[in-house]
Amino acid sequence: MWPPAFYDDFITRIWMTYRHNYPPIRPSNYKTDIGWGCMLRSGQSLLANALLIHYLGRDWRRKGNEKDPQYLKIIQWFLDELSPRAPFSIHRIALLGKQLGKNIGEWFGPSTISQVILALVSDFPAADLAVYIATDGVVYRNAVKDAATGKRPQNDFQSLLILVAIRLGIDQLHPTYYPALKACFELPWFVGIAGGRPNSSLYFLGMQGDDLIYMDPHFSRTALETKGMNSYDEESLGTYHCTMPRKTHISHLDPSMLLGFYCRTEQEFNDFCDHINQLATVHTPIFTIENHAPEYDEDVRSENDFGIVSDDEIEEEEDTIL
Fold it and tell me: Is the pTM of this model over 0.85?
């Protein structure tokens, strides 16, 4: 038996899974994402739960609030259709992936789904959320501030989803990273991991000892038909929630993964940075915090950089000798 407080929280989290019988993702004929959409669905889960916290708070529970208008709006944003009311649909994700070099029906990696989330959220101002992607495992504070203010210092700091696409090992997750990764689940800003086994992504949102608790997108359900959100019954909405927590040992986690952190305010972001820096003093860090990205000189090189001497320089040397 799971503790009641944990279970009520778990069944509140939004669960994105394979769907079938939705309108084709043109120009392809795909009417389902079975077999290729697990990372897309895991990325949707991470984003959906960040939005759930953003709009309704970490303590909100679905039980008794099934018809909450904001909750229904968030679900609507992820419906499986190419329409303005569904800016984060599988259709838009797959089409944007195509622009990033991934064919419709091709599996995404953590880096691709992070880029897609950034583009989709940036293109949907109503989400009222900024997105920042860490560079090579480093969160640069000045770049985060630029993302949260639109590079306008006079602007307020917008609530922010930080995405960290990392690889922690070669063929398997290296044990030296276990403590820092587990510590992430204890941070109040953490919204989970999109990752799992090679070419088989899961959404991890909790921890128990050395086991990670996850939602599995590899269950296909019929796509909801297009109609007003208030017209969907509890059975239909319930397909976006998991009632059976699953867990796997941390050693089974694929080393390539996407981490998500949500910071509502600038103060929360500063606290997040302080905690990550503190964790780095006791555990092998899985990513780091820096104030500024390194500045490089303009890439203008002389022949001397390569040990090459020009004809002009040879002539000058000969003149000097003479």
Answer: yes
